[in-house]
Amino acid sequence: MDLEAEVIEFRVPTENNKTIFIWDIQASFSQKYIYEYLWSVYSAFGALYLVKVCPNASVAAPGFYALVKFYSTAQASKAQRATNKQRLFQEVPLKVRLSTKQNPTFLSGSQSLSHAKCQDLANHYLGYNGWSTHIITVKDISKCADVGWSLDTGSQGELLKYGCIVQLTLPQHGVTCRGVGVAEEVVDQEKGPEEKLWKRGKLMKWAKDKAVVAAFEKVLLIVLGNGKVAVECRTDREEILPDENVEGVIQVNDISWSDVEAVAAEEEDLPWNFTMDLSH
User: Fold this and answer.
1) DSSP H helices in 187-231
2) What mean pLDDT do residues 163-184 have?
3) Does residue 240 or residue 173 have the better pLDDT?
4) Given 40, 119, 239, 246, which residue has the most CB atoms within 10 angstroms?
5) CB neighbourhood size of 60 (10 A)
6) The CA-based dihedral angle spanning residues 81, 87, 92, 93, taken in that order and rounded to the nearest 10 degrees
């Protein structure tokens, strides 16, 4: 039995050998149909970070190509071998290749997963009942002198900033860890108290989501060849996360809504300049 282990992190997968490239997709079906079919087929091999279906360039024959990105190198390789030269949903066999050389674009450091993708990855490997989160504290830190004002509030703006500490528990593995999240935005004082109240709720939720992501980033999934999963939790000896008085802790994770929008945009439009192994 193959017990070779692979470590999977709650980060955007950066290695190109976790990505397979599919082409010779005919124009017989819609882009939406192809996306849904590919997601269904390849998710059977393992957790997917991304499926992207694109029309061929105008100089090429009508049709599509696709990119499928896994969290696991082993699962990407297995998927490539199993589906290369298979027809799947069309009469013409597909060409499926694994990218084996890293793209420098991805070498600048991986990004955090979104809150939704953290949940999807946890559900895949740990099960829906295999993890839970608990809010330790959430506080309005807008008036804290040592928090800093990272946004230009202007003459009519009031800065709202919330911090949250969340505890993540993986009961079947006896693992617990905490994460910190901060969210901020400027409120236009001319829009009245309703606007401020709405943004407070929005910021508290976002701070909580960021704290959950930060907690998941400490978790390492060790996936064995037999399908079993072990869990380790990375700890920072210098990190102190008390139950209260979080003002001095959360400033290290300062974010703004512009950061949020930038990350969301990158997840939807990542660069795809791949080098592929065409020897198979």
Assistant:
1) 193-216
2) 95
3) 173
4) 246
5) 10
6) 10
Name all domains of the chain by residue range, CATH numbers in brackets: 14-109 (3.30.70.330), 115-266 (3.30.390)
Gap between the Cα atoms of 176 and 269, Å rounded: 34
What 3-state DSSP class applies to 181? strand
Question: How many residues are listed for the chain in this entry?
Answer: 280
- What is this structure's pTM? 0.79
Q: Write out the H or E segment, with its range, that includes residue 24.
A: strand 19-25
54-66 mean pLDDT: 90
CA–CA dist 166, 208 (Å, integer) = 7
Half-sphere exposure of 53 (CA within 13 A, CB side): 17
The average pLDDT across 218-245 equals 77
What stretch of H or E contains 69?
strand 64-70
**Range with lowest mean pLDDT among 38-47, 231-240, 255-264:** 255-264
3-state secondary structure at position 247:
helix
Asked if residue 114 lies in contact with residue 264, where contact means CB atoms within 8 angstroms, the answer is yes
